[in-house]
Amino acid sequence: MRTFLKTLFPVDIFKGMKLTGTHFAKVFATANRRKVKLHVTEEYPEVPVKLAPRFRGRLTMLKDEQGEIKCVCCLACEKICPTQVITIESGKKEGRKTKIPTRYDFEMERCIFCEFCVESCGFDSIILNHQFELAAYNREDFSIGMLGESQNMFGLTPVGKFSYSDED
Amino acid sequence: MNATPELTLLQTCLMAVIQAVCVVLFIFIIVPLTIYAERKVLGHAQDRLGATRIAGHRVGLTGWLNRGMWRMGKVPFLSYWRGLPMLVGDIAKLFLKEDIVPTKADRAIFLVAPALSLIASVVVFAAVSFYPGALFTFPKFVPVLGGVPFNGFITDMNVGLLFILGIASVGVYGIVLGAWASNSKYPLLGGLRSGAQIVSYEVPLTLSLLVPVVLTGTLNFNDMTRKLALETSPLAAPLMAVGFLVYFTCGFAETNRMPFDMPEAENELVAGFHTEYSGMRFGFFYLAEYINMVVVSALASAFFLGGPYLLPFGLHRFVQDWPVLGAPNALWYVVKMILLLFVFIWVRGTIPRYRYDQVMAVAWKYLIPFTLVLVVLAAALRFAA
Fold first, then answer.
1. pLDDT digits over B25-41, tens only?
2. Average pLDDT value for residue range B186-196
3. Fewer Cβ neighbours under 10 Å: the N or C end of chain B?
4. Count of beta carbons in the 10 Å neighbourhood of residue A153
5. Distance from CA of A37 to the nearest CA of B (A)
């Protein structure tokens, strides 16, 4: 009897309609308001995206307060990298006790952004920054390093040829 | 309705052409808007914004304006409506795409089927009446048509409802023939399902339309809406409300909309009956589906929601003496249609698809006996009064 009544009066359907109707009404009423935002999508290219603090973007090297490279060439990152995209050559520098990298090559086209390199670094000398618009036309644009043409290991936006929010 | 002046043959033909063009224009305005509304409403129901842009943010004037306003920290003016040009893009795409006929398809039938589907859904409007009488009269200085009334309906035939039902059921031929002629297994399965489903649901659909027919005792479109609004007893209101629900449910099945979209079943049958179609031939099927929605909403709003009269379910007699609201108005009719189109989209955003056996069970085990009871009750009510 109960199931029969339930079949006769489609209560569940009306419950569902109420749910979707509420969502529709809420989003429709606030779609053009800036303070209240009840939809979950972002107006991405026009509005910069808010990223989570631990977002894993492109690998970047850090410098300390004196402008010295913090990396000491312990090769921990090179060893732990699952796709072996990091190549380090170490050298000496006058007045510095530890070694200093003369080459730090990072081939981003194979990087899987796992952050193992940053976790393994004992000197906090590398991080993954918040840059995610990394598309480029040429493969060479993905070779990132410290020297010459590809000296862009420290900057924020070396590639990003398609970056909508930064370019102008 | 009124004492119309005797029209010459030329005037009659001209009026028919003009009204037909007006109705077709109406259809081809409201259908793209429905498509746009579908994107928006479904988006909102899923906490999205729906279509908000047509190309990049740098394309077009609105793109530049929008970008600047976002930079200034404001929500851009008209940003919400920027998906609207997408309709033009859609239509352009449908026209420009290559029209492919599969090698082993039954060529003639394959080419005819989409047109059949579209024509069947448009021709229905020949008998639909938007307003019972003249909307306006052509002034005297108009060359041929001076003094001729512009009616709110194309034809005022005795068997309007019968005509509508007959033409509307031709639409299934388009689907079944197109499916068969494609000579491919997915369209065939979709077409078979569609044939069975539409034939099944035609029975409760027609039976639920019998409720207003029995209550009024006529098949004339204008007479039916007028008698339902003004002359039926208020006791019929619950009956008509239930009849409306049943009719609308069957309408979903007839138009292959979401809870019953067996013919398409895109997660099982690629795209169902129109898998092999491309370009504007697919566009015909696509348009026909939406025009069918408009037809179902038009009939539902005329026979159950009062049509051009304000109050639904035959309750209009209580307000018929009010100054403006009491008079019939084509606006009410269109507004009710649009509301029903919204409900179509709303339901699509809510209810998942039924299994095939469930679809058939709903029709044969529940709706048909239920509508039979409704018809009997309506008959009892009519002859008791």
1. 988 889 889 988 998 89
2. 85
3. C
4. 22
5. 10
Euclidean distance between CA atoms B24 and B304, whole angstroms: 24
Q: Which two tokens stand for residue B332?
A: 């009410």
Q: Give the residue from B329, B160, B127 showing the smallest Cα distance to B229.
A: B329
CA B184 to chain centre: 30
Phi, psi of B311 (to 5 degrees): -90, 140
Q: Give residues with Cβ within 8 angstroms of B149, minimum separation 6.
A: B2, B4, B133, B134, B136, B137, B138
Amino acid at A32: N
Q: Would you say B209 and B129 are in contact if contact means Cβ atoms under 8 Å apart?
A: no
Residue B96 phi/psi, 5° resolution?
-85, -15
CB B338 within 8 A of CB B364: no
Closest CA to B109 of B173, B190, B204: B173
Taking only the tens place, the pLDDT of each residue in B172-181 is 888 888 888 8
Q: Which residue has the tokens 């039976």?
A: B207
d(CA B15, CA B59): 44
pLDDT digits (tens, 9 = 90+) for B215-263: 888 888 888 888 888 877 778 888 888 889 889 988 888 888 878 876 6
Token pair 């995209």 is at which residue?
A85
Confidence band (pLDDT; 50, 70, 90) for B55?
low
Q: What is the DSSP string of B217-230?
A: T---HHHHHHHHHH
Q: Where are the beta strands (DSSP E) in chain B?
A: 129-137, 149-153
pTM of the model: 0.81
Question: CA–CA distance from A166 to each of A9, B74, B162, B224, B382 (Å)?
Answer: 56, 19, 64, 64, 73
Q: State the residue for tokens 């007959």.
A: B166
Reported confidence tier of residue B339, pLDDT bands at 50, 70, 90: very high
Map tokens 């972002």 to a residue. A42
Tokens of B20: 């037909």
Residues within 8 A of B (CB atoms), A 15-74 only: 16-17, 19-21, 23-24, 27-28, 31-34, 38-41, 43, 45-47
pLDDT tens digits for B127-158?
888 888 777 777 777 777 777 777 778 888 88
Question: Which of B251, B276, B278, B265 lies closest to B106, judged by CA?
Answer: B276
Best mutation target among A32, A36, A46, A166 (most B Cβ atoms within 10 Å) is A46
